[in-house]
Amino acid sequence: MSTDVRPEAEPAPAAAATHPPARPWIDRSALRADGILAAVTVGVLAIPSLLLAIVMTESIQWALSLVVTAAIIGAILLRRTRPVLALAGLTLLAVAHVAMHAWMYPVWFGVLVVLYSVGRFSRWPGRLMGFGLALVASLLAAYWLVVETSVQGFETVVGVLDVLAFLWIPPMLLFSVAILTGWGVAAVDRSTAATQVAQVSLRRADQEEERAALARDMHDVVAHSLAVVIAQANGARYTQDPAAKDASLASIAGTAKEALGDVRLLLAQLRHTEAPDPIASLAGVDALIERMREAGLDVRLEHVGVPVPLPRTADIAAYRILQEALTNALRHGDRDQPVHVRMRGVPLPGGQGGIVVDVHNRVVTALGQQGPGQPGHGVRGMHERARLAGGEAWTGIEDGWFRVRAAFPAGLQ
Amino acid sequence: MIRVLIVDDQALFRGGIRMLIESQPDLTCVGEAADGAQAVRLADEQQPDVVLMDVRMPVLDGISATARIVAARPQSRVLVLTTFDLDEAAARAIRAGASGFILKDAEPELVLASVRTVHAGNEVVAASATRELFKAFGAQRRSAPAAFDALTDRERQIFALAAKGLSNTEIARSEFVSEATVKTHISRILTKLGLRDRVQLVVFAYEHGLTGERA
């Protein structure tokens, strides 16, 4: 089964004949595969054909068997682009075959490949025509069996029913099954392709969101720091107080330095998102924590309860909040103390329940400057993110620990 | 002495602006607030003439704080500080009663001039930038209300010039009248239209298609 979606074939051969064909007759990308298929089909069927050839004495029979073989090969090569036309051609050949009272060549079974292709590569009208041609072909087969094998019994109604039951229904069934198989494969293929498209677009949306979040962070860092630098520099230019000038210069240097650190961190995140683990999901928690450990943070992860699958938006938000909390701990927290991460799954019947992400890290107490000031933009972003994903976040300081707790309902999947 | 209140959630930003304000003999900083709620409280205590107001702040944002401050004390003027020159929040703050907006990275001379201009009320701060702002985020144009018909022809001429952002001096020069006359006309126009100050006049003109440009 090929996974790529091919253009569906022209519905009717008539249309293909009157229209100058814009589409190629041979699908080049599949030429090799179909060539092999034709060779295998003919090769397999050639063995019984050769056995038959031992008893074939008339040269006309030989010629016709070669024509049928060539027709089967041609039809297989056309099966993707003109499946109905290929089937119609074979049916016409079958009419000639029966009219000439030719032998039954096993190579004829190659028609099953073409019938399958009608189901696989054509649309509604093409498939209906395929069934029509299958009906004609099965009647021809039945007629051939009646005539060439001298079946008796046309004199009575029961005899006619016998012929129908034993000589027409089996080929008709066989042909129909071939078309239906192709049809089923086409349907499966289409839904597979649709799923793939959906997955790709979902992944792209995640990446877009991630990029937008990074752009927002980058703007926050750069704009806020530069606004401070500009205000302080202008203030220092205008003030008459020399001590204030000195303090300004110190805060300009400090702000710029901090901003540079933040930008480096964001760029590191950007590089990570370009790395093979771009998808924000709680499934990637271990990798995230590993990265944080590499950056020098002692993270203790604890899973409590049973993991509950979250809706996609909540999954992204939960991951992002955890990432933000750990980044904050790395930036502002006491790095000598471990950071505790607890993922608590609360399953409830009926798709209820949810996940609580709990992060706490020791705040820095000795250095007053790094202390817990007012909530920064990152913390506000966490609340916003949680709310947008249908959850809720709490942040704050408890007994010297900075705590981030975010809860997301499993909700309706 | 113009009494200035500085409102921004970044202490170092406030500090820089404070130094700038304090360096001027005619300006004094009467307080700093880190969020909108503090700003409302301080404005009530300190009765500032001009409030320099950030828009994005925790607890209470600059837009709501502006509305509360001008409602409690109409003679206070609010000058909004923004990061972008086309910031929808600035447009909303002006609708809420702010007298103008300037960029956080504006030249210090412009910041000082804007504080004085807003206080004097004889000119619009960054008139063309304000028009651009309302071109981008303005409401749908409505037809002029009945109050506009109450203006005399002379007042309409002055209105059109003020709506373009011209100062009293410029209007006086182009109309060959004294500045005092222009001032009288302007205050009468504002009263008749029920507007707070000149920037509201610019916004009014823009939103009612009265800018003199053929819309």
Number of domains of chain A: 2
Number of strands of chain B: 5
> Which fold name corresponds to the CATH topology of the largest domain in chain B?
Rossmann fold
CATH class of the largest domain in chain B: Alpha Beta
- Given helix and strand content, the structural type of chain A is alpha+beta
Q: Please, how many helices of chain B? A: 11
Number of helices of chain A: 11
User: What is the makeup of the main sheet of chain B?
Assistant: 5 strands, parallel
Q: How many discrete structural domains of chain B?
A: 2
Q: Rg of chain A to the nearest angstrom? A: 37 Å
Averaging pLDDT over every residue of chain B, what do you get? 86
Order of SSEs of chain B, N→C? EHEHEHEHEHHHHHHH
Shape of chain A: elongated
The largest beta-sheet of chain B arranges its strands as 2-1-3-4-5
Instruction: Give the strand order, joined by hyphens, for the main sheet of chain A.
Output: 1-2-3-5-4
Q: H/E series of chain A, N to C?
A: HHHHHHHHHEHEEHEE
Could you give a short description of this structure?
The complex is a heterodimer of chains A (413) and B (215). With 413 residues, chain A is of the alpha+beta class.
Search tags:
heterodimer; A: 413 residues; alpha+beta; Heat Shock Protein 90; 2 domains; five-stranded mixed sheet; 5 strands; disordered N terminus; B: 215 residues; alpha/beta; Rossmann fold; five-stranded parallel sheet; 11 helices
